[in-house]
Amino acid sequence: xxxxxxxxxPQFSRPKKPQGDYRTRxxxxxxxxxxxxxxxxxxxxxxxxxxxxRDIRGLRFWYPGDxxxxxxxxxxxxxxxxxAWDVPRPRGLLGHQQLGELAAFLAEVVRLGGHRSFRLAAAxxxxxxxxxxxxxxxxxxxxxxxxxxxxxxxxxxxQEDGLGWEVLARITPRPLSARAWRVCNMGGGLxxxxxxxxxxxxxxxxxxxxxxPMSGSGTLLVERALLGPYDAMVGVDINPEAVECARRxxxxxxxxxxxxxxxxxxxxxxxxxxxLIVSDLPWGDxxxxxxGNAALYPAFLTEMHRxxxxxxxxxxxxxxxxxFERLLNEQSRxxxxxxxxxxxxxxxxxxxxxxxx
Length: 357
Ligand SMILES: C[S@@+](CC[C@H](N)C(=O)[O-])C[C@H]1O[C@@H](n2cnc3c(N)ncnc32)[C@H](O)[C@@H]1O
What we know:
GO terms for molecular function: tRNA (guanine) methyltransferase activity. By secondary structure, this protein is of the alpha/beta class.
């Protein structure tokens, strides 16, 4: 998530920091990141580059710095502050002392994130204990309880060592995958954390000439544009609404990327125009049909072979796994390897990295 504008977005307004190296004087808090299943390694790599993050165990870590830095992570879907209580069951959190500590812990997260409502996520969230907890927190936090859409997502779960219960409080009102640049959404739009992972694993080179055929709402374009320099980047889609949507998102991200209404199979562009081609092909459900894809996919591979430079890379993300792997097995012009398989919104697409033989 890009750095929020504090003037426009009071969610991240905080008291002025003390002068000097304030970070070393801040107490560390424990945090946990949540990534889409399949993207945990990408999220951990990004986490390891956060200065001051320490004692990193998978996606769990201690951090004394400004939590706003964590709201700018792009591989995880959420970041939570965590605290554990030495209670055998959630009922123990209703004790006077525990409830006071829990309310103070959550109030601090609300102060940083500006959440306007809360919800609880726990096994048995309909139970009488959870209902009591919701009632108590409603008063203590002075926030409405909204069981479905509450902005402060509070997860309760047993500690791994089984000795107590831990509470995770999501530090942002919306998931990190809900990017500030996304002002236009389309059916079939890619989760932005997947687009980030595609680019990180495809390799990021300043001299890349990048092509995103079938760019839809422009998720792959914007996520790459935000990563840093490249030589050129072009997106095309056959649907004029998608082109308009991608342009709006690119502009909201304050980047310049050319997006045009062009059939990706007949671009008319010269041979070997691109060093990196990334595409989220129609999956045959929300976008495209399975029958149509049987013709589209081979034609796509042929045209991309023409447009890809000799040492170029082609990344294909698809849920049409059987069709795509059969096509790979039947051809000899590309070598391919799987980059990842991710679980998202009931789908489990795979990303493949192809190179010319
Ligand atoms: C799965 S969607 C891409 C979603 C996109 N990654 C996003 O985040 O919004 C596939 C896109 O391919 C486009 N498409 C299908 N056939 C095409 C073709 N021959 N040329 C260009 N675009 C095409 C569709 O209009 C659709 O926008």
